[in-house]
Amino acid sequence: MNQDATILATLALSFQTLGVVYGDLGTSPLYVFADVFTKVPIESDVDVLGALSLVMYTIALLPLIKYVFIVLKANDNGEGGTFALYSLICRYANVSMLPNHQQADEHISSYRLKLPSPELKRALDIKETLERNSALKTLLLLLVLLGTSLIIGDGILTPAMSVMSAISGLQGEVNCIDQDKVVTISIIVLVALFSIQKFGTIMHDISVLRAINPAYIYYFFKKNGKKAWSALGGCVLSVTGSLFWPVFVIATLAAMIASQAMISATFSCIKQSMALGCFPRLKIIHTSTKFIGQIYIPVINWFLMLMCIIIVSAFRSTTDIANAYGIAEVGVMMVSTTLVTLVMLLIWQNNLFMVISFLLIFGSVEFIYMSSVLSKIFQGGWIPLAFATIFLSIMYTWNYGSVLKYKSEVKDKISLGLLHDLGPNLGTVRVQGIGLLYTELVQGIPSIFVQFLLSLPAIHSTIIFVCIKYVPIPMVPQEERFIFRRVCSKEYRMFRCVARYGYKEGRKEDHHEFEQLLIQSLEDFLIMEAQESNELMILPLIRGENCEETNGDSAYEEHSLEHEISALREAKAFGCTYLLGHGDVRAKKNSLFLKKLVINYFYAFLRRNCRAGTASMRVPQTKIIQLRRTYMV
Asked: pTM for this one?
């Protein structure tokens, strides 16, 4: 019974997923012929059949053969998209621009790649070339950011195009509906669409699929008798072309569902780019407690709505919007073709003939389409390029500034020798409690720690350097979330914790829950450390060497573990304090003018207006101690 329920739930989720992934494809008939025949007049059957044939084979070649049979196989544990492809490449080759990779990341259970064959020399050569050449790393990142920027632009154009195409059907049926009213109604529908986005993805009732069973015709007549017979006249309308209003309603709802699917995809892309350090932090709301991928980003939602209204109001017809829409769609296709080609060479290690065939067949088709849509650059085609430029600039500026800031922190980190000189009390008074000092460093002691020692009259009895880090995989298992290392010897009671999250995950836990998980993981680390130490001490005992001394040390280790855990729990009882370094980033005086412009103004503006790191955990202000410092990059 439970198994059947699970199967039904899976089928229902699969059906909903079709709406999210392919909803846009289902609404294409709303506007494809309207756009085609504004450019080619209908003079004979050849025009109609030729356009229809082009549509059919385009769908067969691109969405079916390319995406269903090839691109979907290049998934990252079920995740797709440009950033998922980029994460695959980053796991195979060290091409990430943010230098915070750790060897321990490769031991995460979902990190490992399933390679189909032993590594070929060709793949190794490409990998080494990518890792050595910083220009190629930057080019790859720009390609990924371009694809993501075009998808965000698509999230603006799809709702405008789909909704306006559906509403424009009123012009042929209702005499009083002119173009102005079409624009007004479209704007009303768009406002309604974006207003309900915060409630999550529209649910689809799959029970209507049971109508495929012709037995329901028998049940219908059995239940209604003569009334069913008289209803046949209404059913005939479904094949006469006179059933306008139901079709209009269905077309409008289909446009809204497809638009919502594209909006959700935009949210997902931005969340992935945030996790991989390529977009300023924004507030993310999870609209489902069951499915982690259903999210809502308020700022982006209202921005998309505003842009959709502006586009509909400015262009007032689907023709110019279609010109813009085509550039965005084909641009994303070309980016995905390039990235999948790289995956085929590096990870799948396919036969070179297959790789070249894939690139030539799909690349040439997409190039032909691109050459066509680019000819409409001045008839609306510039819109996605403008949006792509804006978002590409935002993402690259954020990534560029974040990398420089990280490198500055690595350069300024303090040595263990300084702490040894200060002694276990760190040159100040140690008071009960746990200090969580947040840093982006995965190794070393941040220089901001010295500022806290100089500024505070006392420091906590237990210090934990916490690094929130996103790794290029969708999800990290909870039991593999934290990595602990000891900083200095035991009497210092200082530890490093790297909390790892996947790019699909959201940090849904509040500060209290996070503290509980972190402290429990620290206890587990202390126990594991003591067990490993005891195992090393047993080795001389097996050999019959220094038996009495070994037994004494073992007893001391047990007492030491008990003492450390007791001290940790006592510190926990006094609570946790969050030690944060709020940093300004400035370019050095001898930097180039362009660098000063980007860092001192653009990146600084983004940092001032992005969401604070602790905001997602809802940490009370009374638990935060913040110091300001300036990073010279």
From this structure: 0.77
Note whether 341 and 475 are same-domain residues: no
Is pLDDT at 3 greater than 80 in this prediction? no
Q: What is the pLDDT of residue 238?
A: 47
Residue 231 lies in a domain: yes
Domain's final residue, options 347, 377, 402: 402
On whether both 71 and 178 belong to a single domain, the answer is yes
Instruction: Give the integer Cα–Cα distance in Å for 611 and 588.
Output: 26
Tokens of 283: 């507030």
Tell me, yes or no, whether 2 lies in a domain: no
By C-alpha distance, which of 410, 508, 478 is closest to 101? 410
Q: How far is CA 522 from the centre of its chain?
A: 29
- CATH number of the structural domain spanning residue 269: 1.20.1740
Whether residue 330 sits in one domain with residue 228: yes
| pLDDT tens-digit map of 386-417 | 888 999 999 999 999 988 888 888 888 888 88
Of 521, 525, 445, 526, nearest in space to 479 by CA = 521
Are 153 and 308 in contact by the 8 Å Cβ rule? The answer is no
Spatial distance between the Cα atoms of 585 and 440, rounded to a whole number of angstroms: 14
Looking at the predicted structure, is the pLDDT value of residue 236 above 90?
Answer: no
Q: Do 461 and 572 fall within a single domain?
A: yes
Exposure string of 153-170, with b = 16+ CB inside 10 Å and e = fewer, is bbbbbbbbbbbbbbbbbb
Residues 484, 441 share a domain: yes
Burial of residue 292 (number of CB atoms within 10 Å: 0-12, 13-18, 19+): middle
Residue 259 makes CB contacts below 8 A (sequence gap 6+) with 158, 159, 162, 163, 193
Residues 365 and 508 in one domain: no
Rg (C-alpha) for the chain, rounded Å, is: 30
Determine the Cα–Cα distance for residues 161 and 321; give it in Å rounded to an integer. Answer: 6
Using DSSP's 3-state secondary structure scheme, residue 155 falls into helix
Residue position matching structure tokens 């940092």: 607
Q: What are the DSSP calls for 415-443, one per residue?
A: PHHHHHHHTTTTTSEEEEEEEEEE-S-SS
Q: How far apart are CA 418 and CA 357, in angstroms?
A: 60
Structural domain range at position 182: 16-402
Same domain as 526, residue 420? yes
Identify whether residues 427 and 332 lie together within a single domain.
Answer: no
Q: Which of 378, 402, 426 marks a domain boundary?
A: 402
Confidence of residue 295 (pLDDT cuts 50, 70, 90): confident
Flag whether pLDDT at 609 surpasses 90: no
**Domain contains 189:** yes
Q: How many domains does the chain have?
A: 2
pLDDT number for residue 283: 85
Q: Is 41 left (phi over 0), alpha (psi -120 to 50) or beta?
A: beta
Q: How far apart are CA 516 and CA 388, in angstroms?
A: 42
Buried b (16+ CB within 10 A) or exposed e, 558-569: eeebeebeeebe
Residue 4 belongs to a domain: no
Angle of the 511-542 helix axis to the 547-573 helix axis, nearest 10: 170
